[in-house]
Amino acid sequence: MTTSQHVNLEQFIEGVIRRNPGETEFHQAVYEVAADIFDFIADKPIYHEAQILRRIAEPDRVISFRVCWEDDAGNVRVQRGYRVQNNNSIGPYKGGLRFHKSVNQSILKFLAFEQTFKNSLTGLPMGGGKGGSDFNPKGKSDHEIMRFCQSFMTELFRHVGEDTDVPAGDIGVGAREIGYMFGQYKRITNRYVGVLTGKGLEWGGSLVRKESTGYGVVYFLENMFKQDKGTIEGKVVAISGAGNVATHAAEKAIQLGAKVITLSDSTGFIHDPDGFNREKVQWVVDQKAHSRGSVADYVKVFPVASFHEGERPWGVKCDVAMPCATQNELSEDEAKILIKNGVKAIVEGANMPCSNDAIALFRDARILFGPAKAANAGGVAVSGLEMSQNSTRISLKEEELQGLLREIMENIHQNCLEFAVQADGYVDYAKGANIAGFKKVANAMLAFGIV
Ligand code: NDP
Fold it and tell me: Which of 9, 227, 288, 299 fits a disulfide with 38 by CB distance 3.0 to 4.6 angstroms?
């Protein structure tokens, strides 16, 4: 390896942008990680020479395919399906499937890249992948969803397997969609294996999987506060999103004594100054699950609350902000407002919800910041446990899994700490997560040689 191959951070990023034109979310995700990794490997030429970061930022494989299906009116519809297999150095590719109209290659490449570091942080043997489609499940009938899922799996089945690549759910993909896809996989291959996680309990799923991402986010926050000699109890929490992650994060935060005052969806946010309780969160869950309606109707049932159409909740004064909806939902300007309003901690439930500029402001202001790849890793961790249960054909009990989830989140927090503590005592979790996640994957890659 010649020294001319040792590029600096800016040259590295220029290369990523040149090789992946127009993929802005992917550039953003790589930049966020690369800045910390370049610092870490400055005095470790072995990683430079083997071009480790460059290789992690080049997916092993990007599979793209046509998905045809017929709607209820008999029209032929055509969607694009993807699976991005980013890196399998420490285990089979693992990561969710997203069905949303915004899905494109850039978004799935950013998610698969992030997933590689996240999975490494869990301590479980899982590589990073992500997939999905620009199929918009909103307003579709159950039969249309079924036909789409079957058609999607009719191609995907050749690229996945219990030891190759194990997808799960993500935005727009829950137990129903996993069921239709698993049914089709089984039908095509005649094999009953753990090829997907997030399955129903009657057919190979794991207890606690459904709750694990949201609960894990709150456990991570609890650990951050503990390290900072604080507590979650009594904190006012603003949450965005009204899906799986947001509602379970709300449930756990309330259980641990916090006051959750906002939830949101793509139509706007609800502000409930009295705070949500179990019943109110359940109303939101039912509203999204059964009627798939907007959260706007909440104020009809709980008139103390207000609905803010087309807005995000970051202008509401809070101690903790938990973005749990989607990428780039918390901007630099919104970060300034949160800081001005005295926010004490930000913890990412969604993937890459904060822009890089927003993260820089939080870090500069020395505010606790829990990055997604650490904070929301509880979901994939329990998916990893679902894989083990499928392999051994033994189901773990609820208490056992709840304990394991808590323990894994504590370990992830501890793994971050190794590289996170700064000279002035600030714990830079973003840096800690990036470096700890990188190191394990990088060392495995070194062991494999140039492949
Ligand atoms: P769901 O589909 O259950 O919920 C998504 C929520 O986000 C909905 O309330 C949705 O509103 C809202 N939302 C989606 N897109 C937008 C948008 N462009 N603008 C505003 N709101 C939007 O997804 P999950 O809860 O599973 O996932 C949420 C986030 O958490 C994603 O970033 C995902 O990658 C991440 N994540 C999920 C994991 C899991 O286990 N499920 C694991 C780790 C990370 P509406 O209903 O109106 O569309």
Answer: 9
Residues of the chain with pLDDT under 50: 1-4
Q: Does residue 326 have its Cβ closer than 6 Å to ligand 1?
A: yes
Nearest CA to ligand 1 atom 19: 266
What residues are labeled active site?
130
Residue nearest to atom 42 of ligand 1 (CA): 379
- Enter the CATH code of domain 210-372: 3.40.50.720
Domain range summary for the chain, segments of one domain joined by +: 3-56, 61-196, 210-372
Decide: 223 in ligand 1 pocket, CB within 6 A.
no
Our answer on whether the CB atom of 266 is closer than 6 Å to any ligand 1 atom is: yes
d(CA 310, CA 322): 18
Q: Which atom of ligand 1 is nearest to the CA of 376?
A: 43
What is the predicted pLDDT for the residue at 95? 98
Q: Is 342 left (phi over 0), alpha (psi -120 to 50) or beta?
A: left
Two tokens, residue 202: 């009657």
pLDDT number for residue 303: 97
Q: What is the pLDDT of residue 293?
A: 82
* Binding site membership of 170 for ligand 1 (Cβ less than 6 Å): yes
- pTM of the predicted structure, to 2 decimals: 0.96
In the prediction, which pLDDT does 27 show? 98
Query: What's the CA gap between 269 and 295, in Å, rounded?
Result: 7
Q: Do domains 61-196 and 210-372 have the same CATH topology?
A: yes
Please give the backbone phi and psi of residue 332, each rounded to the nearest 5 degrees, phi first: -60, -45
Nearest CA to ligand 1 atom 32: 350
Superfamily for the 61-196 domain: Leucine Dehydrogenase, chain A, domain 1 (3.40.50.10860)
- DSSP letter (8 states) at residue 262: E
Give the model's pLDDT for residue 291.
65
In degrees rounded to 5, what are phi and psi of residue 153?
-70, -25
